[in-house]
Every structure is written in structure tokens, then in C-alpha cells.
Automatic annotation (TrEMBL):
This is Macrodomain Ori protein. NCBIfam families: PRK11027.1-1, PRK11027.1-4. Residues 91-112 are annotated as: Disordered. Residues 103-112 have a biased composition (Acidic residues). InterPro entries: DUF413. Belongs to the MaoP family. It holds the Pfam family DUF413.
Amino acid sequence: MSDSFTTTNRFFDNKHYPRGFSRHGDFTIREAQLLERHGFAFNELDLAKREPVTEEEHRFVEVCRGIREPATEAERVWSKYMSRIKRPKRFHTLSGGKPQMDTVEEFNDSDD
């Protein structure tokens, strides 16, 4: 990753990881460091705000587009990060009541 993913900007995600990547338990220390160091470049490549220059960056973009599976550490950690922040939203109701359970009521037709 010598000439790939170069950036002078640190990457932070205050929306999903306000205390930093390493403090949330989703990433190993090494993965958190990789995200902080190169995440800005990963993000720009993923969003097509930056053109890939090296072969490694071209392959990275292919992974981002779903053309191939992640193979390198950079590709795996970015895929992992993206899957964590794109979790399905939790379902909320507006009723404010407790969730309803399906119950089966027994009816007797007798004239008690």
C-alpha cells in the first residue's frame, strides 16, 4: 500500500463512531488504525470523488462497486466498515404501546 490510498487527512466518523473506531469494538486496533490513516482516501474512491491511480486502488473500487470480493486488508476493512454503517434501521411504531403478541383465545359455545 506504498503509493496507494495516500492522504494527509485523518478519517473520522463522528455519526457512527463518535468515540473513535477502536473504542466501539467493531474493529481490531489494526483495522481502526487503517481506517483512520486511509479511510479518507477509501471514502473518496468509494464515492468517485477521487480517481484510482494504482492497480490496488482500481481493484479497491471494483470491490466497492460489487464487481469482486474483498481480498486485501484495505478492501476487507472498508467492506466491514460499510456493512456496519449500513445496518438496517430499527423499526419504530408510533403507537407507543407495548408490542402486541398473537394470542389464541378459547371460546366455548356452551350456555354456562
